[in-house]
Amino acid sequence: MVLPHTEARPRPGHADRDHLAARLARSARHRPRPVADLEAWLDARARANPFEITEVPFAELTGWSFAPHSGDLVHDSGRFFSVEGLHVRTDGGPVDEWWQPIIHQPDRAILGILAREIDGVLHFLLQAKMEPGNVNGIQFSPTVQSTPSNYLRTHRGARSRYVEYFLEPGRGRVLVDVLQSEQGSWFRGKRNRNIVVEVTDDIEPHPDFVWLTLGQIHDLLHRPNLVNMDARTVLSCLPGHAVAADPADPGIAAAVARSSLADDDAAWQPLLQVRNWLTANKAGRTLVAHQVPLRQVRDWHRGDAEIRHRSGRFFRIVGRAVRASNREVAQWRQPLLAPCGTGLVAFVVRRLGGVLHVLAHADLRPGYRDIVELGPTVQCTPDNFTGAHRPTYLDLVCSDRVQVHYDVLQSEEGGRFHHAVTRHLVVEVGPEFPAVTPPDYTWVTLRQLTAMTAFSYQVNIEARSLLLCLRALT
């Protein structure tokens, strides 16, 4: 049983939150080591911890099998995850009915990051973690990235290092603790505990872990595929920590800072109205997703080594054998979901009343627990849309009619997805872009977006990832 964190201190008030924001801002300005040194450290850990990933057919996925009655791909232990079938009907989007495989993982994983002041500056403990689906093997990851199947040692391997700081009450001060969803097209009802715990005691060092400031992490976000998805989602849930910027500065860094500090009087609409917009979309949209046996999923073919759609689009289910020298177990085999193409997520931003706003979308996905979450302006795999039904604003964000502020490839979660990479874009439009939006879009400031990440199932993982990338522009 996972007990809640308790602290012998009063509930934090405004002064405490403001003090934390100031400490986070100081950490975001502090860069004790250049990003090239951090990349060299990660490369050194990869050399010190060799790994091998090989493709295997389903018949050689030791510990996994297709259930005789349903055809679902399941683990012999009944734990970890399964690949099942889903039948979806909806009233929104270009397609109103489809079937697909989907990953079902009922375990609530811990995505935990330890924080500690070092020389008066808040640092965060990240690890060099290998995941079998990572496009480059090892990436900067949370202190702990572990499902109950792992930290309860279903695999009979070692216990996840430092997990006790997130399981045992009183180990430190909790800065973030919220259940968040994951990819709603690939997971059914998946949620993870995103948690940051600040400690004051010395932490036993380990060569695969490193203390980094927010500023250093922001620098890493400007390089492709270095900060993994799980670290991005946890850090995006931190409270706002911008520093006041010169109102006359027209640059994007100053605009991001001002938007992060803007109160409701300076916003296009108050936060309560943003929440009303999202709730209305949750209540007003219809999506019915039924679990079905994987063998009954239409338009998908199961071969010896992959499950794929007859069109060759969307994604495949494949098998991989893994050997790793620094994981809880030295070798294992598992299925992975392999996207067919590079994804794209984009925020369109515009200055309204002099304040930078993000154009958010009410994103409908079959795997969400609550049907709709606030998502990026655009979220898709462009190669999946070859006909007339192109996502709204996709052509805009890829055109020369916008000013590009951020354009970096970032990896999705490598423990379940094989070489899943998503292009992250932040593009700005001018005053000619209409302020009045379609009903499933709305304008929010970065302060409002940050406030909504404090609640479960409000902001999807793609928007949270982009939020952290926006902060990296300051």
UniProtKB/TrEMBL annotation:
Entries under Gene3D superfamilies matching the protein: EvaA sugar 2,3-dehydratase subunit
InterPro entries found in the cross-reference section: EvaA-like, EvaA-like_sf
Pfam families, A to Z: Hexose_dehydrat
Domain of life according to the entry: Bacteria
GO terms for MF: lyase activity
Domain dTDP-4-dehydro-6-deoxy-alpha-D-glucopyranose 2,3-dehydratase: residue ranges: 36-238, 273-470
Native organism taxonomy: Bacteria, Bacillati, Actinomycetota, Actinomycetes, Micromonosporales
Record protein name field: NDP-hexose 2,3-dehydratase
